[in-house]
Amino acid sequence: MPPNFQTLKHAFESTTSLGNFLSIKPTVAGNNVYLHLQCFAGDAMGMNMVSKGSLTVIDLLKSVFPTLVLVALS
Question: pLDDT tens across 41-68, in order?
């Protein structure tokens, strides 16, 4: 697990009582970092749950890295 994983997990899981944050995998390409977040939504489709949790993780990262710019959420 990456350092501070539990901090990111807590941020994600604070947005839902059903979703679980399982892992995060960064990939560096030039000046860009792509984050692959893996989560579990239980029996739900989970699209809104995952988007809301992911944006909360990004907001946390922005508070630590003020120059971070979110280009896309997919």
Answer: 888 788 889 999 999 999 999 999 999 9
Instruction: Write down the residue that tokens 């990004």 correspond to.
Output: 58
Q: What is the pTM of this model?
A: 0.88
**pLDDT tens digit sequence for 1-40:** 668 999 999 999 999 988 999 999 999 999 999 999 999 9
User: Which helix (H) or strand (E) element contains residue 6?
Assistant: helix 5-13
Side-chain half-sphere of 40: how many Cα atoms within 13 Å? 4
Neighbours of 16 (CB within 10 A): 20
